[in-house]
Design brief:
- By secondary structure, this protein is of the alpha/beta class.
- It has 3 domains: about 1-110 and about 255-320, 3-Layer(bba) Sandwich (FAD/NAD(P)-binding domain); about 110-250, FAD/NAD(P)-binding domain (3-Layer(bba) Sandwich); about 330-390, no CATH class.
- Helix content is about 25%, strand content about 25%.
- The chain has helices at about 10-25, 130-145, 165-180, 200-210, 255-260, 300-320, 375-390; strands at about 1-5, 30-35, 40, 60, 70-75, 80, 85-90, 95, 100-105, 105-110, 125, 150-155, 185-190, 215-220, 225, 230-235, 240, 245-250, 250-255, 285, 330-340, 340-345, 355-360, 365-370.
- The strands form 8 sheets. Strands 5-2-1-9-20 form a 5-stranded parallel beta sheet, with helices on one face. Strands 11-18-12-13-14 form a 5-stranded parallel beta sheet. The protein has a 3-stranded antiparallel beta sheet with strand order 6-7-8.
- It starts with a strand and ends in a 19-residue tail after the last helix.
- The model has no long low-confidence stretch (mean pLDDT about 95).
Length: about 400
């Protein structure tokens, strides 16, 4: 019996397990997934928690029921991977051999890497919303916030869901406006990027929107440390900005086990072929989602598009056929802009977000690079699609490649 071993039962790992267990001959292949706990969080929902738009408990489910009953699910920690032995060592002492390994270990936030961030004021005047606990605590803080200077800071790139910081800023503007206290809150965006976003054309559009809402952008701000006592955020170039409330998007890194196993780069990301999703070093190792070092967004939609190519390539590798090299970095993101509206962007490795209609050319119903109510409802509807279609490995009528039909320069 041969084995596909998947490390991680998050978005990418769950999708791949459910797809592969249906496609590979059950009498020849065993699909095993390993994760440290039985808690699956709908991560896009973390953005809504601080503003009371989602109940924390509604975005959490147990992992096991999300997996096909034929998937061998192991809830335990991973000590290390020994790729030269085709073996994974679990924390309890058990070891699992594999014929094909899929790394879906995601990413983790590393707030402790920024001096002072987790010191005085952490979870009191400085928060994150990229974790369940952080989002819940920030919700309590915003509810009793009486005004002052709110600074949202991205410590460094890459991060999970690069549009989430922008969404937070737009929703904060709407939140304080609805509470009748927007004039009491100064909102600042301190980012290591030159502008509001990684893609120039989209950056201009988002920058204009931030400006219209009175949100100040401090570009090229590379955070060096936090003085929690004085409530000051410092940059490597000597600039400083004070805050009453700091919302931090901490530094990110790959899974510790990938670094420990000598498989990752300096930040723990797995070096991966950007078109086939095969490891650049180990032929029977593949990766999906945030775990890769690919120059694409670390977002659930990207993992979905990757899964289409990876699903094909695992089967091809098993049959000793040439791999499919068609993943083009396709990313598709709804951006909440507040007041019941949202934007949508669609791009890949080489093509910037363009205006147009999606997914049907000229029809939509979603508009690209433009605010609309239907985009907002699309963002909300995605949660149902996530739990019921994406994770189950069912097909969506979307091409994994970015299409230019229906878009214009």
């Amino acid at each position: 019996m041969r084995r596909v071993l998947i490390l991680g039962a998050g978005t990418g790992g769950t999708m791949m397990a459910n797809k592969l267990v249906k496609a590979l001959p059950f009498d020849q292949w065993k699909v095993t997934v390993v994760d440290r706990d039985n808690v699956h969080i709908y991560q896009p929902g973390l953005l809504f928690v601080p503003f009371g738009m989602s109940r924390p408990e509604s975005i959490v489910k147990a992992r096991k029921p999300l997996l096909d009953a034929r998937v061998d699910c192991r809830l335990t920690g991973i000590d290390r991977v020994a790729p030269d032995e085709n073996t994974v060592y679990l924390t309890g002492g058990e070891k699992l051999s594999y014929d094909i390994l899929i790394v879906a270990t995601g990413s983790r936030i590393l707030p402790e890497q920024t001096p002072g961030l987790t010191g005085v004021g952490w979870k009191k005047t400085a928060f994150d919303f990229y974790t369940y606990e952080g989002a819940v605590e920030l919700a309590k803080k915003l509810e009793r916030f009486e005004g002052g200077r709110l600074v949202l800071n991205i410590v460094e790139m890459p991060i999970k869901c690069p549009v989430a910081p922008l969404e937070f800023l737009f929703l904060a503007d709407a939140y304080f406006t609805k509470k009748g206290m927007r004039d009491k809150v100064e909102i600042v965006f301190a980012t290591p990027l030159e502008g509001a976003f990684t893609k120039p054309k989209a950056s201009v559009a988002f920058g204009d929107m931030l400006g219209r809402r009175g949100i100040h952008v401090m570009g090229d701000f590379s955070a060096s440390e936090v003085d929690g006592e004085k409530r000051v955020l410092k940059s490597y170039d000597g600039r400083e900005t004070n805050y009453d409330l700091l919302v931090s998007i901490p530094a990110h890194g790959g899974a510790e086990v990938i670094s420990k196993s000598g498989m990752g780069d300096g930040s723990g990301w797995l070096p991966t072929n950007k078109h086939s999703l095969q490891s650049t070093k180990f032929k029977n190792v593949f990766a999906i989602g945030d775990a890769t070092d690919l120059p694409s967004s670390k977002a659930g939609a990207v993992a979905h598009f990757q899964s289409e190519v990876l699903f094909e390539n695992v089967q091809r590798f098993a049959a000793e056929r040439p791999l499919d090299n068609s993943f083009d970095g396709h990313a598709n993101c709804f951006i909440e802009t507040g007041y019941g509206k949202a934007m949508l962007i669609d791009f890949n490795y080489t093509t910037e977000p363009l205006p147009g209609r999606f997914p049907l050319p000229g029809v939509g119903p979603f508009s690209l690079l433009e605010e609309s109510e239907i985009n907002h409802w699309g963002k909300l509807a995605f949660e149902w699609v996530y739990w019921n279609i994406l994770l189950a490995g069912k097909e969506l009528p979307l091409d994994h490649r970015m299409l230019t039909a229906g878009k214009w320069s």
